[in-house]
Batch of 2 targets.
Target 1
Amino acid sequence: MTDGAAPSEPRTLSRALTWLGFNGRVLEEAQDPTLPVLERARFLGIFFSNLDEFFMIRVAGLREAMAAGVDREGPGEEATAAILAQIGQRCQDLVRLAYGTYEREIGPTLRESGVHFLSAEEFTPKERGFLDRLFAREIMPILTPAAVEPGLPFPHVTNFSLCFAIQLAREGSSERFALVQLPRQYTRWIQVGSRGGFHFAFLEDVVRHHLAELFPGHEIREAALFRVTRDADFATDDQEAEDLLDAVKHVLKQRRGGDPVRLELEASASGEIAERLAAFFRLEPESVYRLPGPLDLKFLIEFTRVTSLPAPRAAPWPPQPSPDIPSGDAIWEAIAERDFLLFHPYESFEPVLRLLRLASEEPSVLAIKQVLYRTASNSEVVRALERAAENGKQVTALLELQARFDEERNANWAQRLEDAGVQVLYGLAGLKTHAKALLIVRRGPGGIERYAHLGTGNYNERTVLEYSDLSLLTANEDICSDLTAFFNVVTGYSEPLPWRRIAMAPLGLRSRILSLIRREIEKSTPEDPGQIRAKMNALVDEPIVDALYEASNAGVRILLNVRGSCLLRPGVKGMSEHIRVVSIVDRFLEHSRIFEFRNGGDVETFLGSADWMPRNLDRRVELVFPVIDPELRARLAHILDVLFADNVKARELRADGSLAKRLSRRRPVRAQEVFWEEARARAEGRGEADRGAFVPLRSVPD
Amino acid sequence: MVDLAPAPPAAPGVTNAPPILSVIDVGASGVRMLLAELKADGSARILEDVQKPLALGRETFRTGTLSAASIQKAVNILRQYRAMMDGYGVTHTRAVATSAVRAALNRDTFVDRVFLATGIEVEVIEGSQETLLTFAAVQQALGAQPDFAREHSLMFELGAGATEWALMRDGEVAGSLTYDLGTLKMRELLRAESGDRRAMTRLIQHNVREMMHAVKRTLPFEKVANLIAIGPEARFAARALGGEGELAAVSAKDLRTLADRILTMTPAEVAASFSITSLEAESLAPAFLAYAELIRLNPVDRLLVARASIRDGLLLQMGKSIQSGSAVFFPEQTITAALNLARKYHADERHGLHTAALARAIFDATHAQHGMGEGERLLLQVASIVHDIGTYVAARGHHRHAYYLLINSEVFGLSRMDLEIVANVARYHRKGGPQSDHPAYAALPRGARLTVNRLSAILRVADALDKGHAQRIQNPKISIEDAELRIDVEGAEDVALERLTLDQKGALFEEVFGLKPVLRETA
């Protein structure tokens, strides 16, 4: 074969590798010297946090699949093995780069700003004394050394916990081995402040200094910090091979589930300890990461939230009020009159919280129904629901099924809600309820009134500040009717009935999307080609990818904004030449899902909670809803215009799966900055006039 | 005819809030509820539309009774519905049960258990009432589509236990029929032919042909322009085949293809791939094959599927009753059905209609005495129209023949109790009056016995006034004076025969109302 396209050209990209491309983009932000150092540190924390989850779920899943002979990634076991090898290589490279960035750039820059992480030798005697007292009083009592005895099972090391592997020697006896896990509930960094400035000690360094006290009569030959990552696939919904409802399988899976998948180890650890641990955890050398710096840099996310740090941080983009929405309880009437779209976090989540708060107090409100997915325990949302129930309203809160097992905290507030009289439900068996929806039923003078909030983001006070999401506030009869039916389905009051407007997973959302794509194909002509613009976190559903290829071949122009994993190979002649895929990584996590279909000029736009992934379409309860108001549809079109015009933080996915900078002779467009400026302009009453300044493109320039 | 609970006071602090209605339907395959707000223009705004699967039909049609477990399941569902109703402050409720409960030997136990546990009074309704309610909803939905008003349309619901038929002509029901073939029986047939799909198809086609013959024998039509299907299977077919709107059209070919596809799958697979319950899935293939065959047997090229359900009809009826105070629904259709019955047994149609008119006039004139309403007025007219059908069997004792003919008939829109009253009224249109040692009469509840007394008293007078079957007494002036019911007729016609008969047959009237009927001629 000498010319032409290779006949075995793969139809799809690797889900795992494209995801790693995304995380590489996050690392790129951490490496960007033009960003303030705390912003870079935050991105580095996010990079490691992402990677943790990736190993725990994705890599674990692939390893399992390989062990079970289940095909997950490619056409066979061999493909899975090959992908795993590529992932391993890529991760080693990324981690090396990340530590280089920390050790050579972020760490030193922080120090220059007066933020120091000190090692044991760097403390003054006074500081030393403080740490000694702290250790004796608070830390020592919660440490439990565990001896590793031959013939006894290896002590259990919790997923992600930092742990010392210690080699002990004692006169007259053979060498012994022990483990000391650091308490996870204890803060990772301890401020020691006698010199002015910001000096911190890592918990592990404080413990290391005192290890000998834990083993009286022994000499410590070596103490090496390590961290193990385990297969937690069982605890998540990211399952492909099994049926959650099958309890037997589930238990088997749980037993197998905790298998280690990655070992991280201080670079200074001896080869002997490294080998020993790798053997204990049955991990091959490729899965052992020797790290030339502090383990678990994920802590940087929390650390950079410490507001008093003197280091430079990004200028805040605080959420702006939405001037269209009247203040106080005039919001009811406003929503009854017309729909509102809120673009978070540029625009404040306050109207949604206000609506909920008003609903909890107003005597005319009969019922409140809400899906709570990853909601903080002491959140205003939970308090409002509690209050509403106490005020005698019918309150239904739907928690995702598996949240019950998540953390005790969760169970606590669920209990609190129940005690207040809230009907707490855990959704449909085997399906996580991922939809974000709130329905308020009120008795008005003219009859029953219904108000809905539908969104792409969770009711979580932190993520509404950090994730880019969209909210729709509406009293539209069809939407509210559908939402009423939706709650009846998820609470078990009714079996599903045909919807008026919305689409719900797992009941027909995929087929709805496929039919929308097919309609686009049918309406597309050479003179007037169809167009699909869609934004989501991941695109890994094969039937949808195939339909998009078909649409591309039919001449439909397809613009995709996919943050992470993407199965679709764009720009391949004869397959996907009309498809372009871009990904944006910037300050706010891109989290909204927007689906726009040209529909022969009669544009239809949907928002929702679902990515185009089998997980979301088959094993989660998701909602996708149309934006009916033409003005709001136009606003969403503008948002898509800006997103696709970004040439600063956006990267374009190439046919080989790599991400490339978008070369443009136009002036720089940074979408998130544009959105922030627009939100501020609106809040300040400058309104729409300024909007024109920001790239009102209708499609991506070729 | 329809008992409505009195409306409770409106929610505190809210005046003129629209009434909130709930209608519940305990069907053969599920329990469903619609909760709606009645708007000033009479339309209903649906607030809740819920349904839970429950295989009551499968149980009664096989074993004849409902098990304690099934009754408990129904109670549990209805408790949930009750909570929902209370949440909205529902002002009017109507709950009906159809074929599955109707056919159960222990239906009273069911009704009683539900009432004790939930406070919901379930009314077991007849197939013809079901058809009427659904028809009303379909008619409402079709609105003023003139095409349908002009043409003959056959509407049917292939239920689990039986198929209900109604012929529509000029926007009215010209006749109705309940035929004992439903999806459950078809499924049994399929099971007997396990695996051989062609044999199964032939069996269903054979049974459907038999049914169509019966429909053509019973309902007065030559050919129909539209074949309208109602019911969940039909709605599913429309959905699966992409039909939309109030009347979705589906072709025989598509139906057969869909049925073939479904027959190769297990009910669980059908349920999964079409997003329905496996219970619903079981009845799909037989229903689709039946639809396809019905299209073939009629000169139509497609089946029209109406979206409306019995619950929509119930809502419509309740709304009408709340707003106009009248609970009688489609009286014209019931009259038409009564006339068809009279024709079927070759009764004197003109005499029947004339008697009905006279009876109506007496009923209205004596309203202050009897205080009866629209429902009883309709029953009186039906009884008047059909009172002579017993002559089909024999002139001698024809009042007794009328009784059993009626008791074994269906009249569109009438409940079982309504029909028993009509049969008794016809029974007592001549010879001896109601007597407590007549078992059929004695078996009626007291209220119904009183109605029979009053209505048969009126019917006897009206019948006497047309003794000659010549409609000689036209537009009589009826008044009450000096303990007399005065019937004044103008003109020179000889009414001696009528007067004589009235003297004989008026005794019951005098007994019941304390008024002596007197026929007077005025100049």
Target 2
Amino acid sequence: MPVHSSSSEAFREMFIFETIQLIGKLEQIILNSEKCNNLDTHAIDEIFRIMHTIKGSSSMMFYKHIALVTHSVEDVFFYLRDEREKEFDCAKLTDIVLEVIDFIKVEITKLQDGQDLEGDPSILIQDIHGFLERLKNPSTAGTMLNPYEAVFNFVDGCEMENIRAFGIIHKLKDRAENIRHVPEDLIDDESSIGIIRKDGFKILFHSEGPQEEMYGFLQETLFIKDFTLRVIEKKVISLEEPIIDLLEKTPEKELRPDNQISTNKQSIISVSVTKLDKLMDLVGEMVISEAMVTQNPELADLELDSFHKASRQLKKITNELQDMVMSIRMVEISTTFHKLNRIVRDMSRKLNKEVQLQVIGEETEVDKNIIDHISDPLMHLIRNAIDHGLEHAEERKEQGKSEIGTITLEAKNAGSEVWITVRDDGRGLDKQKILKRARENGLIVRPESELTDKEIYAFIFFAGFSTNEQVTEYSGRGVGMDVVTKNIEALGGAVSVDSVQYKGTVITIKIPLTLAIIDGMTITVGGLKYTVPTTSIKQSFRITPAEVIRDPNNNEMILVRGQCHPIIRLHELFKVQTRITNLHEGIIMMVENDDNIVCLFADELIDKQQVVVKTMPSYFKKMNGIAGCTILGDGSISLILNTSDFFT
Amino acid sequence: MSEAISEVFVEEDTLKGKFLTFPLGTEDYGIEIKFVTEIVGIQAITPIPGIPEYIKGIINLRGKIIPVMDVRLRFKKEPKAYNDRTCIVVIDIKEVTIGLIVDSVSEVISIPDENIIEPPHVNKNINNRFIESIAKINSAVKLILDCDKLLNEEDLAELELLS
């Protein structure tokens, strides 16, 4: 087991990170190939490369199990790579690779939890070897071929060792098959002479001839100092295995075909997220300091042409810098989406439902934070959709739907939010069943006749709510949906559901695009400053006393373009002393959230500016109506309003 | 490795047994110096709606937002107007940074362990909750604050209720 010092900790983290990325990629390749039921040469190369990399890094970290498994898979793909024309059972191979992926995933999870690796890969490895043998059998079954390994050492100072070696190979070609030798490139690669001098010239081959005969045949070579020939033990795999071992000493040659990809990789580096966070904090500070300098009250009445010019330049640069830093944290959602392909595949096999996953807008970019938090919820949603939503083929046929169920996963940017929808064309939600269940759980507090469809559907997000009578392997325990809501709410997002019976269900997740820098409008209430995110502001205006409507409970309302909206007095809500308490003296700001509109009453509107959102100190738990705070240009603190809290 | 450990010990030793003292009304209080990160003068405090009265709000400490607590109000004493002697003692406990507003600070003193005694348990005085121990210095007595309890669970629960 590896030593647990801090540096090995860092290596381990790196290993976990890289391996997860690699197997993610691998999974994608395999699933893509499965769709067209064919592994093309590019995919084989790619898989071989990935396995090779994982093998290398895991043996470096002494994670033997992973190294062994990947090694055996590497064998298979190494073989396929050489035998391009070979026919093979693609489905079986896919299964094997997916099993290996699962194995590695489990081991990685153990690593992440700080446990020792203990998974036993031997059955898996046997499987893989079995596959490889069957793959090779047709070629070797007919004639009895003996696998040999020959090592030549030439007489010192005989010169042109590579040419001599080439001569041996040439001679051998008449009597043997499947000849492999190290070094591989004898003529064009000058360094081959050095290798032969140092390590000798190794040949692996199959031949029908018995050992004595071959020995005699090869011994006739000139300038040989010593020469060994032996039959290798394992008959079938033997052809490949020693070669890989030998080849590992000269890996540059192996990697030659993937020039293109390796240069791609060079332009990407991985950076720890804490560093990025730090960078973002610093840029945030800089934006504030910039405002402190350029909007310094001491400069207010001075005529400073060149200063203003310079400060505009500074502003431009800081803005660009800010955008850049923000974009660094943005990650395409595609990896998260592709992970789901696997779940769809496994479930559709197990549940015997044919499902296709349609992905739209996978290039949408969202904050890294968000990516980390949405994969679990999405997994639950997809599982639910397949398990509960989609019907079996016969049922679908009866209803005149296509036999293959479709799940559509869509991501798009909508203003400052990302919307992710999971849509299925299954049976939809059963309103009566949900109502019944809600009644049993005592969730209904209002008369049932008053509930809208959407409100009824929203019951499925409550904890412990499952309408599925049977608990299946995948869902039905009623824990899924409330995990979804919790995760999404932790991101400041919202989940909603809509459904049409027999047509399907749509679940929409709305998450703020980024949590760090927003455009905000600063308002004052009794000398205190508050910031309202511009995205939620519809308009601001002044009113006359006559426009205000009061209901018997003294709630104030206002009629705007034929619609009546409630007024919330911020000074009352936040218990702030202010001189301005008459509605017509202050300003009314109309804010919108999810089609709901309220009017906020404040003293004054100051200006619009970009603010860096700082979370409230952890000492305070979630606060009603306040999303966070920000530091304004003059160093004072402004509270950022959470407009969605005003509607509950 | 062993060197590094001994260094840490030395470091702790320099902080151990040292207390920042400050008067509050008629008593003298002390805080273990290891909790204190800095002392700043009083500055503009932004009030926050819906929090206990003794939390005055938040301040901008060089770009870091921290809550501030008026220790007088925390101990249910008469509030006193802030002046230029009023200080904010910034302390760090269990990764929570908070500022304590005190009338003024006196000095940092070393108190040997043998001079520190347990507070009496009989007294159910409300203030007693926050007193970790009592230190005797010559004839004077300093009450050593339990910083943990100052932001104790009970009150955190209170905060949650309010939100």
